[in-house]
Amino acid sequence: MNNIRATLAIVWRIAIPYFRSEDRWAGRGLLAAVIAMELALVAINVLVSQWQNRFFTAIQEYDLARFVTEIWIFLGLASVFIALAVYKLYLNQWLQIRWRQWLTRHYLGEWLDEATHYRMQLTGDAADNPDQRITEDVKNFVEQTLVIGLGLLSSIVTLASFVVILWGLSNKAPLHLYGTDIVIPGFLFWCALLYAVLGTALTHWIGAPLINLNFEQQRFEADFRFNLVRVRENSEQIALLKGEGAERSRLLDRFGFVIGNWYAIMGRTKRLTAFTASYSQAAVIFPYVVVAPAYFAKSIQLGDMMQTGSAFGSVQDALSFFVTAYRSIAEWRAIVARLDGFEMSVDSAVNLPAHQATIELKAAGGSRNIGLEKLCVYLPNGKPLVAADGFAIQTSERVLVTGPSGSGKSTLFRAIAGIWPFGTGTIVVPAQAKLMMLPQRPYFPVGALGDAVIYPAAPGAFQASQIRDAVISVGLPDLADRLGEDGHWNRMLSLGEQQRLGLARALLHAPDYLFLDEATASLDEPSEARLYRLLAEKLPQATIVSIGHRSTLDAFHTRKVAMMKDGAIHVLGKDSTPVEPEPSAAR
Fold first, then answer.
1. Is 382 exposed, middle or buried (0-12, 13-18, 19+ CB in 10 A)?
2. Beta strand spans in 458-583 (E)
3. Closest CA to 300 of 175, 150, 445, 459
4. Least enclosed by CB within 10 Å: which of 289, 447, 542, 545?
5. What pTM was estimated for this model as a whole?
6. Which of 200, 563, 218, 181 is nearest to 407 (CA)?
7. How confident is the model over 452-469, as pLDDT tens digits?
8. What tens digit of pLDDT does each residue of 469-513 get?
């Protein structure tokens, strides 16, 4: 029971924001229309139950006129039923797509807000494969919530409607045993209730493991698909290393989890289906067996018997909702658990500063320098990495950052960019300053080359002639004629070409501070020198901070910073005073 309450609480938390959103009136209107049609369909079923009594009584009494009249009545009821069923489905699907659209935008907004997607990975969140959760899980949540919710509502209303009918028929058809009528008020209803309760209890006992099995199946499927995507994205490296055999083995191992869990689902589903199928088939004949003694004792007519069977079936179906929908409910609960995990992971990443000390990014209106004040940068496990106090990157200067691997050079860049939360202290950034970080492997979205170069600016933010000139200036004249061509540029271009396009992006955006994290490491030294001279020519006012290891880079920078493994920052060049970590910073 506690699990059910917890699941319903999660469903409410996920579902209710849509019906309070800017699209609430459309959503509420569609939901109200679908509910109204569902109730109307139940009313039609009640009328059909009453029609059955009259129709079969007319047959028993050989009343042709009543028979024909009832045929016309049935055609009218059937026409209304068909129209309601068609438009209920249509409006249901309309509600599904609007709800899914809002929920997808909501999750995308939270996931991509202020580097939350990046922090979720740093914190080791439990939300594996967020792509699947935002696509398949959102779609299935909306669809299954409406199906199960409307099904439950229909069952409750059907039960309330047909209990009255079944109770009245119990008075007409008392329990007849050995020639004696035994009057039990509503005994047909109690028979249906007992039958349904036993069926529901046995179904839950047999099918309960399906909830966890379906959750695991979703996880294994997503993990297998994610690793397939990784192979596709890294196909060149795999081919160069002749790693196809290793990848095949790794993928088959992951697929083995999919298969093993599926076999477990098959076995459990087989047992559940065997029971529910037997239960459903027995439900067809059970009411007639119960009421047959009264009919053969001529206490009731054929119409009463047929209506009893119909009403009993409706009540039994309503009471057996969880029996027939158990597998769908098990899958739905797994989906709800996955979305709940995703939301918790997003909240954990968003609220990370509230749970621990973090680096403060401060906008300074009067300063034009980037300053590090009592800064200590940690790894996610709490190990200190970089420590500095009183260190500044001055406007329009060129700074070269060097140091051994693992000394925290790239992590310091991430902290300055505001996406690395682990640490203490303050990073002061001039107000309104434009910062751009260029990593060793720049990112280009799939699409037109021109749009990929100006990313993250919107298409059309720069004139085609500007983009063309920037691409030519970085030494890629052949690509200047392909700006309108669509492609997966991270796969189609060499790393050197990608780095050149990254610098073209910087020329277009003209940042105040440009951070180059080995952004020219794949170029030869003469090409690298030409591009640094180009940056000095095109961005004379920009502050450029480079991470690099080549001695040839010294000529293009006015100051050199050496980062040590112990967290110290040694400043050489114009300022040769070493900046050592404070004793408390390494704790």
1. exposed
2. 486-487, 513-517, 543-547, 559-563, 569-573, 578-579
3. 175
4. 289
5. 0.67
6. 563
7. 999 988 888 999 999 999
8. 999 999 999 999 999 999 888 888 999 999 999 999 999 999 999
